[in-house]
Fold each of these.
Amino acid sequence: MTPKTILNADLHCHSVVSDGTLTPEALAERANANGVELWALTDHDEIGGQHRAAAAAKALGMHYLTGTEVSVTFAGQTVHIVGLGFDANDPAMQQGLRNTRGGREQRAMEMSDSLAKAGIKGAYEGALKFVGNPELISRTHFARFLVESGVCRETPEVFRKYLTEGKPGYVPHRWANLRDAVTWITEAKGIAVIAHPGRYKFTPNEEYALFTEFKSHGGRGVEVVTGSHTPQEYLKYAETAKEFGLAASRGSDFHSPDESHTDLGTLPYLSGELTPVWELVADRIQ
Ligand code: AMP
Ligand code: MN
Ligand code: MN
Ligand code: MN
């Protein structure tokens, strides 16, 4: 019997509705061409692309789960919570995400002021040229402008030199709180999943607190196999999933053919001893 984890599911990627460079339709085609059997588009703090993504998946005969990636502040750091299988028309969830997006424009102007002090002029206007959704100006759009204008060679270099804590151009921001994000997703009939835990700079105690509080609010899953993890982290977070009784997710976090090193649908399968997140939302698959 084929283990239930052997499925080419890609449950994390971004379109022009947030900070990706492809439309939901182009992503659906790329996922399908790469052999993805179950797909979710997970734009940051935004579910405005869900109907387009679901329709495109359906036209290609590919299974679909609704998705989003909510920005949360936990223990002074930004943590991302992926939501899967929720009702994209849920009003409380839509309002919560709208509020989460709310501070982005102000933050972007402060980032631009900060970059100007470091000698980089016109970054706000420059970043805006790359923005597909006016409510979702992100650091990624600034990074694209800094590459286009020749300040840096590629986007990871921009983040290293400019857009991360302690660097000119970094502006701290308060996102949603963990309980609210998990509650919006759960009450909209979806499941909440901790995105790429290997990327956070938590101490072991802080990471334990994140998983414990996430569970206590009703969180159900964790990304184990993601484009943001090393193979060692696949093993580490498979253990964490078992320890906390969480289901495991798999997703590339694909943003752009020019920038992303992990393409849609190309990651290793989840280990057979894990419960895949798609088992928990089987009745929500379209
Ligand atoms: P924001 O939500 O505006 O803070 O932007 C966060 C986004 O920036 C993430 O979703 C990634 O797409 C991108 N990002 C963050 N750190 C890096 C990095 N080190 N290299 C490339 N992209 C990054
Ligand atoms: Mn992103
Ligand atoms: Mn993320
Ligand atoms: Mn992401």
Amino acid sequence: MDLTIRNGTLATATETMRCDIGVSGEKIVAIAERLPVGKRDIDAEGRYVLPGGIDSHCHIEQLSGMGIMSADDFYSGTVSAAFGGTTTIVPFAAQHRGTSVTTTVADYHERARTKAVVDYGFHLIIGDPTEKVLSDELPAAIRGGITSFKVYMTYPKWRLEDYQLLEIMSVAEREGALVMVHAENDDMIRWLAKRLIERGHGAPRFHGVAHSPLAEAEATNRIIMLSRLLGAPVLIVHVSSPEATNTIRAAQTLGARIYAETCPQYLVLSAQDMDKPGVEGAKWCCSPPLRDKAAQQAIWSGLANGTFQVYSSDHAPYKFDKTAKIPRGGETTFKEMANGIPGIEMRLPILFSEGVLKKRLTINQFVALGATNHARMYGLYPRKGTIAIGSDADIAIWNPEIEKRIDYSMMHDAVGYTPYEGHVYRGWPEIVLSRGRVVVEGKDLKAARGSGQYLARGVPAPVAAGPAMIDGPARKLKELING
Ligand code: URP
Ligand code: ZN
Ligand code: ZN
């Protein structure tokens, strides 16, 4: 064997055991109580040996809905991911109005190909669902391994009407793709924002007021009803509020095919972080926004009780300068600030420290939420997301004893700040492998630029909170409209 990892505690989404792992080339080839030493041997005594994380929601080298370029390219974004224990990312290829999907996808392949240091796939953001897109380009994207689409219910340049959402969901269901939804009611937000700004309330903290939890809950409820009408699955991304969480939970209890994601910022940051002098609070401005302590509790409960299948970073890195966060310096209002915060490197350490070590989650839930469920939901399982014979040797070795006070100089992204500055987290990855290669060892990056590979993904196999079923009326409707 080329590599052995011995004496550690292996955890998957379902099991925890003391055993050794053998790697040959890019694959895991042996798992046993005791293995002979390989060409390279890693002593993992006192460490957790876990599947490399999968981050299925991050914006890398991407033009946002507001037309702003993210600070990280595929090099800095994947290096930062690797230092946080993540070995696969699925960022977005973003189609803007007037651009074809085919051109968009080719463009993003070119951006990533020579830079990524870990493996990557793409979701497609659909900004312009023309007839040609629906009939030809989406099926072609799926054939090329892009088996999930993100749609927006807000942002003027990306917001789609319910009719368009139905068209996309119907194509996705027929062709075997999953639709991810940014659920916020655009009119409610615009109406509130206009009045707040007219009355001089343009400071960052009013972003949280304009993006009311009711706007999130209304759009969440609406997309659930559209999904139930068609019996088509949807995954609601970056859920932040108790209102939306409860709405999702109720639909799942009925057996609707509704899945959900949340992110680290909704666990450990709050609206108070945005309430800083001047425009400093823009560093914490994301959509949906940070909420209050009660919302944090509701999100933790949703992770523990299975309402959320996936935990992603929504890494949306924008510099705190005139190019992104504060285009008019100190005069910038919350409506003009780039929405999004960085978190690709902090995602798993936050969940490990605050979830596993504080006993809110088991180590197996940590693995499921941070890796395995992403692989299942997005068509990468069992190649990625688990430690099993035949799977890619994507492994992170975690030391639960290391404690770090966060300081931006530790980060490997290109953003220039971290919203977690000064926070203290315990439990960090020490050695990270991607397809059998050591990519991170302590403070050192070992992977070469461009060594990450594109992952053509298969058909999503959603992980249900309960027994998922197609609503009876949706089944009847399907018979009528399809046949
Ligand atoms: O504020 C956020 N989340 N920005 C990134 C874009 C998105 O909607 O996910
Ligand atoms: Zn979004
Ligand atoms: Zn996002």
